[in-house]
Structures are given as C-alpha cells and as structure tokens.
Amino acid sequence: MPIKVPNDLPAVDILTKENVFVMTDTRAVTQDIRPLQILILNLMPTKIETETQLTRLLGNTPLQVELELLQTSTHKASNVSEEHMIAFYKTFDQIKSRFYDGMIITGAPVELMEFEEVEYWDELCEIMEWAKDHVHSIFYICWGAQAGLYYNYGIKKYTLPKKLSGVYRHTLEYKTGMLFRGFDDEFFVPHSRNTTVDEEAVYNHPDLRVVATSPEAGIFACKSTDDKHIFIMGHSEYDPDTLKKEYERDVKAGINPEIPCNYFPGDDPNKAPTVIWRSCANLLYSNWLNYFVYQSTPFDLNAISSGATPSHELVTEEFDLITAKFGGTSLASGEMFEQVGNIILEEPKRRFIVASAPGKRNPKDYPNDYKVTDKLIEIAECEVPRTREELLMELQERYQEIVDYLVGEKDKSPDSDSNDFYVNIDFSFDVEKEFREIAKTIGGAGGRPSSGLRGYILSRGEYLNAKILAAYLGYDFVDAEKYIKFDEEGNYDSETTEPLLQEELLKHDRAVIPGFYGSLPDGKIKTFSRGGSDITGAIVAAAVNSDMYENWTDVPGLLMADPVTVSEPVTVPVITYRELREMSYLGAEVMHPDAVFPVVAKDIPIRICSTLEPGKQGTLIVKSARYYETSYDISGISGKKNHIAITIQKAHLNENPRMREAVLKVFSDREIKVGNIVAGVDTLTLIVDEKAVGNSLEQIKSEISTKLGGAEISLLQDIALIGIIGRDIGSSPNIAIKILSALAAMHIGIRFIDHGTGNMNMILAVDNQDYETAVKAIYQQFA
Predict the structure, then answer these.
(1) Per the residue annotation, which of 66, 134, 142, 609 is the catalytic one?
(2) What is the pLDDT of residue 586?
(3) Handedness of CA 634, 638, 642, 648 (dihedral sign)
(4) Taking a C-beta distance cutoff of 8 angstroms, is the pair 33, 64 a contact?
(5) Which residues contact 763 (CB under 8 A, 6 or more apart)?
(6) DSSP letter at 120?
(7) Is pTM beyond 0.85 here?
(8) Element housing 144 (H / E)
(9) Across 196-200, average pLDDT
(10) Is 237 a residue of the active site?
(11) Residue 434: what pLDDT?
C-alpha cells in the first residue's frame, strides 16, 4: 500500500526514485480507504532529510498511511526555507482539535540542555499532554524519547562521558512482544547522542518495560505497559551517510570527534559506510504500525482515548478519604436518615459528611409536602408573630417525627449474622430545646424579623439536620458558621475559609457539617444561593484533601435529558467539570454550578449517586475524562423555553467595537443577562430570557436605535434554546450530523445554531412549540 503525503513534498521525488510507492493528495482522493492518520512532530533541524527518512520507513508497509507534519510555533526552523514550513507544516493550534492513529516525536540537537531550558519545552509538554487523549500510539525517537520518559514518568537523563556515535549490536530482553517480532537474535542500530536515561529508574518503573538493549549503547527500546508509548533511543531511520555527515561536520568544526563505532570499514572515514541496520529499521516501523496502531486503533478516530477505564470500574479501594454530601430528599424523613446512615457506615472512608435541610418526602405518603427551607423563608418573611409561632411548631413536629423514628430504630438489635451497622446506642436529641432557642433568637415582637436574622433563620434546616445526623452516627458536629466565611460584600472568602476549616477538621476523625451557610465578618450568618449545600460539600472536600467528593441525591446520577421531557433517560457514566458547568448554565438541575470550583483546584473527582439506589455507580465528574470509557457521544441535552432573539442590523456593526459595546450596555444597565450572541458583519443577534426583559422591550429597542444613530431591529419571540453538551462535539462532525438529521426527520425548523466556547456545546434555537419534540428526537439519536 502507498503512503499518502502532501503534493510537492521533496520526499516524493526521492522516494519515487527508490521505488517506494508514494501517493499524493491528488491521487488519494480517488481512494475509498480509511488510511492511518500519522502525525510527525519534526524537531530536527534537517527537516527535509528527516521527513524523507521517516516517510521511507512508514511507506514500506501494506497499510495505507496519511502523513501530517507538525512544527513548534515557539521555535522557528533555521535550516529550511520558510516557504517549505508554510507549505507542508501545521502548528499545534491548527491540529489540536483532531485525532490521530499514531504520532512520531523526533530527536532534537538540544540534549545537553536541561529540558526546562529548551525554548519550546512548554509547548512540547502541551503537545505530549494533548496526545494522551488524541493519539492512539506515540513513537518517540532519541531526545524525543528522553523527553517523553521525563514528562510522562519522571525519568531523568544524564550526560555521557563521551559522545555515543556509531552502529551498535543489540539483543532483545522481551522476545515475545510484538514490537520486535521477526527480529534476529542480534541486530544493529545507529546511535548519535551525548546523553542517556537513568536505566535503573526505567527498569524499576512499574508502568514501563525494557524491550531491547545494547552492551555499549544501553537501553535501546522500552514501552509503556499499556502499549501507548514507544521509546526508541537510537536512530533506525538514519540514511547510510547520516553518521558520516555528522562526523565530517564535527571535524570541520574542530571538535576532533572519534570515528563512529562499527560504521566505516576498517574505521576508515574515506571508505563508504556499510549499511547493516536497514532491514531492522523497516521491520521496527512496520511492527509499530501493524500491531500498535492498525490492529488496535478505533475506526472512528474520535473514539481514541488513553487507556480509558470503564467508569463503572472506578477503583474506590485506592481512596483513603471520602467527603459525602446528602441532599434534601436524602434526609427528608426518618426512613431516609436510616438509609443514609447505612450508606455512610458501610464505607468507613466516608469520614466527613455535609447535610442539607429536609426536602419533600415521598409524594405517595405526603401529597402536599414541603421543603423545610421554603417553610423557613416563609417564617423569615412573616409579619404576624402568632403565625410565625405556628410555622415553627409545624417544623418542630416534623423534626420530632424524624428523631422519634431514629430512636425507635436504634433500639432494634440486628441479627447475630447480620452485617447491619450499629448506630450510636446513646442516641437522643432534644428537638424542643432546639426550637426554643430558635424562637428566642428570632424574638416574639410583632412584625417581620430583622433582616440581619434572615440568614440565621434560613440556615436552621441544615443546622438541625446536621446535628441530628451527627448524634445518630456518633460523629462530631462542626458548625459551618464558625469556619466558612464570607467577606463584607457577601462573597465567599476562600482565602480565610480554607486554612480555618482545614485546621478545625483535622482535629476530627469523623464529622458532620451543615451545608448552605457560613458567616460574615460581623458574625451574622450568610447563606449561599439555593442548592448551596453542594458548595459546602466541595469546600469541605477540598479542605481535607479528599480522594472523592460524593454528592448523594434522589437520582442515580446525571441524566442525559430532563425526565419530564424524556421518559426514563439514561444515566451518563462520566463527564468533565466543564461539561457539568455547561449543563447547569443551560438549565439542567444537577448540582449547584459553583460547586465544582473548590474541587477543580485540587483535581478531586465528584460522584453523583442516588440514596434510593445506592448500588448504582452513578455519574463520575472529573477534570479529564480520558481515563474513562463511555458509550455515549454526548453528555447531556438541556434547554429552556421562552426566549427572545433581538436582531440589530446596521452597516459595519461588528467592525465598530464602540457600537457593539453600546448595544450590550443597554442590557447590562438593566441587569439583563444575554444568553447567546450570534454575530454577522452587519448584524448582531442577542438571545435573552423573556421574563428578564419584562415590559421593557420597546424601551430597549428605542434606546439601542438611539445609541446607534438608527438601526433596523427585529424580534423573534417564543423560542426555546436547546443545548447539546459533549467534550467531542467540536471535533466530531458526526455528532452535528446526527443532531441536524434528527430535527430534519421531524420537520423542525432551526432558528439559529451556535457553538459555545471551547466547542463543548452546540446551541440550537427552535420554536417553543417544537421544544419537547426536538429534545426527544435528539435524545433518541444518542441514547
């Protein structure tokens, strides 16, 4: 099979003369074959020579290969024309959204420098990190191998007493592997380098395997145990005269080099070198392409991942500390408290627990039930003392019901063969005393309680639940009021909170912390926005450096779509922090969107799981999903109805930043959030929520027209936004095709399409009346 290369690449003429079948772009368009996509990061100064050497070896295989050449943007090539680099090389920014079957990282003449001193080291690190989940197999050569071992495994290099230059005998240490299948017992490879790797560190690393060595040259080849990384220390690709040219260059430079070992016949530099490594080089590259790329790479390149592990096989045994937050539904009744107790005590690593206020109970038993926080808001806004007392009494009865149930349960003795946990046998809780204290703090005078008490009142649901749970489990109670701090403007103060909370929690082996609130500098209690217990859980998880933050709720994880719209949607096994934020922004009720920030900073995974179905794995939320497999192309579908699209048309509108700024200021002055912006040369379309605009639509239009000195403004009302979120949306055209095909099949018109930042979501606008049908159609394409 041929190797496909760009038209006019110098290697084409050279290799054609050698009878290597090279196919150009023009010829390849007639082929209906999925070629292997191979990326070469060429760090060598002799660009054309290295291109030709590698193209020759990659072309000597029955597989069709398509080459892409990559350069660093932080270092400009000096030994080849700029025209050549522009014509044939891409930069990382141009290819980073793509996927490749294989990648080669060449050597570079910078080996005597420390890695961090190399001009393009940071960019190379970025590329190597990117390759982990965008390239199926990576082949590192010479200094590239040393750099790869250092970046991926921390293996250091050191300088040799003298330059290693020549052709050396090698043997296999791992004879049953596929990389050197068909090799003779002894084979020869050229080397040309001044440094080598710490061999002891390579041999002792559990994720590396040494494959081939040389008595003189040391380790020649090693690989990662998952076969993703191949490290080659020599230069199998060298031409017959490459070492000769290097030797003559050094002689001319006055370096007085030694004659390359086993290279010139009789060590006579005037004689033509004898090539004894070509067959081994061809076989090495053929084996890599066949066994490490072709045989295992996915047909759909978008499915490439770096040794991904199924998300349902998350190894929690490796965790030493778990912080778990339980939502309102999980702690809504005595029965649910008992279930939570079982969940916590069956896993001793769940040492720090964050509790929400009671939510609604089972609607079959309590058809007109309420959330405790809603009742507390009613109390905070109540102006009639007697009614306030009645509301408090209603809450007191609810908490007493929880405690009475738990007191009854702890008196039950488990069977001798049972694995049931033992709760605190001395458990008791004086609900009446707690409510006397609350009533005393609020005061009995007429009128609404003072605004300074609002935070205190709203926080009592979490406060009481945490105290009851701590007493029931026999855990310590740590009041969030003392350790979670807000600044004078009411913003969460992480710099004060983190050391204060960490210092306190380190004093406790196990503790329960109430969610949702903290305190201001003046001591008054301040709450987060609704759902803020999620944030407290993340803050606690970060403070104690948890291995996992569990968020227990009433659903078995993150659902791909709203169950109100789609019947029994599937649970997404794994998503990233960014995808979670996107889903929350677009309307999905998962967990508080700000909850990810404390754990993102420390790369702590989040697991969303169900108190009602604790045996299910739920959804794992991680910084990078490359280590986990998922069978779904998207992570979720969410959306909102009742939006207005306001389109402003004026010549040069988007070429004049002042005009655009003036338009946006009209909305910011009214504190109206602009959800999406779609821009053309002379048009600007802003998507806003109808409720936010209210009755001010005509005023907004008039003000925009005035600020722009006249403009044509049109409205599109009653539209719904649908967001499809997935980390591969921006790089996989198949996903977009599926989405648009699903809507076309249902004859649903699309008002506009937009990609969010980072190409992680696709936003569609449809008529309100088509919203449910559209969501169902899209869901059926991916579930």
Answers:
(1) 142
(2) 66
(3) negative
(4) yes
(5) 586, 676, 721, 722, 723, 753, 754, 755, 756
(6) T
(7) no
(8) helix 143-153
(9) 94
(10) yes
(11) 95
Give the N- to C-terminal CA distance of the chain in Å, as an integer.
38
Structure tokens at 687: 């998507």
Q: Which residues of 663-681 are buried (b: 16+ CB within 10 A; e: fewer)?
A: beebbeeeebeebbebeee
Q: Is the pLDDT of residue 7 over 90?
A: no
Catalytic hit among 51, 66, 237, 582 = 237
Measuring CA to CA, which residue among 506, 547, 556 is closest to residue 349? Answer: 547
Q: Which residue has the tokens 């980073």?
A: 96
Distance CA 395, CA 514 (A): 18
Distance of CA 206 to the CA centre of its chain: 26
The pLDDT value recorded for residue 445 is 54
pLDDT per position as a tens digit, 160-186: 999 999 999 999 988 777 899 889 989
Question: Do residues 618 and 607 lie in contact, with contact meaning Cβ atoms separated by under 8 Å?
Answer: yes
In angstroms, what CA-CA distances link 360 with 283, 330, 554, 762?
A: 68, 9, 11, 34
Alpha carbon distance 437, 657 (integer Å): 58
Query: Which burial class, exposed, middle or buried, applies to 415 when counting CB atoms under 10 A from its CB (0-12, 13-18, 19+)?
Result: exposed
pLDDT at 444: 60
List, as one string, the DSSP characters of 653-702.
GGG-HHHHHHHHHHHHHTT--EEEEEE-SSEEEEEEEHHHHTT-HHHHHH
Least Cα distance to 45 among 102, 110, 94 occurs for 110
Residue reference for tokens 């969610």:
515
Look at residue 110 and tell me whether its pLDDT is greater than 50: yes
Q: What is the pLDDT of residues 647-694, one digit of tens each?
A: 889 888 877 888 888 888 988 888 888 878 888 888 888 888 888 888
Total residue length of the chain: 783
Model confidence over 307-340: pLDDT tens digits? 444 443 444 445 679 999 999 999 999 999 999 9
* Residue in 170, 235, 592, 643 annotated catalytic: 235
Report residue 410's pLDDT band, with 50, 70 and 90 as the boundaries: low
The tokens describing 563, both together, are 């169950």
